[in-house]
Amino acid sequence: MKSESQVIVRPARNVRGSVSLPGDKSISHRYAMLAAIADGPSRLENYSTGADCASTLVCLRSLGVKWERKDSADNVIEVQGSGLSLTAPSQPLDCGNSGSTIRMLSGIVAGQNFASEMAGDESLSRRPMERVITPLTAMGAQIASENGRPPLRIAGAKLKSIHYRMPVASAQVKTCLLFAGLLADGETRIEEPLRTRDHGEVALRAFGVDIERKGNEVRIRGGQRLRGIAARVPGDLSSAAFFLCAAALFPNSQLTITRLLMNPTRARLLDLLMQMGLRISVTQIEEVHGELFGTLQVEGGRLKGATIAGADTAALIDEIPVLAAIAPYTEQGLEFRDAKELRVKESDRIASIATNLRAMGAQVEEREDGLKIPGGQSLRGTELESFGDHRIAMAFSIAALRAQGETLIRGSESVAISYPAFFSVLEELTER
Ligand code: S3P
């Protein structure tokens, strides 16, 4: 049994200060996996400090990949590439809580000439995997699972290319299939129902892979070799979302976030927060291996409502918990539609959000595929659960900043999945 911790969050008056975030989780996973199958060494600066990206590194070590932590202050990881062929693991690959690890890495292990088992914690063991099992099986892999859930037992195979139309918009699945396509014969084509984050494509190009996009379709030729890279991972935008939403709660907030990820397929949050009333300016834009970085200056203002649906929901999927947590404080409220995917994240996030908002005294309409949260409400501090979900723990710490009285969050250790230093940084940025 894992030990559970709790934190108490007190109401704040304001958010002020400057912060730089550990590396983006999505990019860190992809860089580590591609560095592992590249020729030669790679150096990754500002690698994510979260337990999820550490799970990827642990799995890679079990697959014979050599890597080392170099400078712990800047979280530098050096990876010695193994080339496209990895080594058979002597034990199951432990993916921990990480959906990204199991789904994306399955594309690489499916193309190896050995069998692997991929497993994870209780939450991961409930998450749907048929979205990768179906297309990888069509490519020639043999995969056994527990009714479409982990553990996955993957018999590696010589993969065949496919032309696959993804039924669910998922960047993890797209990336898994691009990785498998790299190990397959011929050209693999993947069509997504709508554009999802493109870090997989950008990272593949950074490692020297030729990859083509036509509308919503990406194409990759198998057998291409990768070259190791020296790269810096931009600050995690989905972690920054918590501080941005905290700043949005107070009209006098002044927040600077340096070297933050600005990739247009992830930055919808910035447009939305500006539309809601936050003032944001971006300076010092730089590009490293195709990923954009920028420094954000943020000032609070009024906080208007919004409706988030369709492609916007997909683009904001990891930011919805914190947006929902501040929704009662907006003038007109927030409505989230087309968000069924939230039910199969680290927790059933629609249910977790509704339960916690109600516990704080808010009115919430919970729907099968979304939430409607009226604005102009005040919340009261109380005892809340994280439901073992890092983004729920962080989202409700932000709601707590404007509640009446203190809020206790149980299972607060879950923040370590993506952002171990979250509570100490939040403490530094808030004025009381
Ligand atoms: C991710 C994609 C999203 C997101 C997850 C990270 C990625 O999941 O929720 O946190 O890095 O590709 P889906 O691919 O399931 O939408």
In short:
By secondary structure, the chain is of the alpha/beta class. 29% of the residues lie in helices and 27% in strands. The site of shikimate-3-phosphate has 10 residues, from helix 5.
Could you please describe the fold and organization of this structure?
With 432 residues, the protein is an alpha/beta fold. The chain folds into two domains: 6-22 and 234-431, Alpha-beta prism (UDP-n-acetylglucosamine1-carboxyvinyl-transferase, Chain), CATH 3.65.10; 25-232, UDP-n-acetylglucosamine1-carboxyvinyl-transferase, Chain. The chain has helices at residues 25-36, 51-62, 99-109, 130-138, 171-182, 199-206, 237-248, 268-276, 311-315, 320-326, 349-359, 390-400, 422-429, and strands spanning 6-9, 14-20, 41-45, 66-69, 77-80, 93-94, 115-119, 142-146, 149-155, 159-160, 163-165, 184-185, 187-191, 211-214, 217-221, 230-232, 254-261, 279-288, 291-299, 306-308, 334-336, 365-367, 370-373, 383-385, 407-410, 430-431. Strands 18-19-17-2-26 form a five-stranded mixed β-sheet. The chain starts with 5 loop residues before the first strand and ends with a strand. The structure holds shikimate-3-phosphate (S3P).
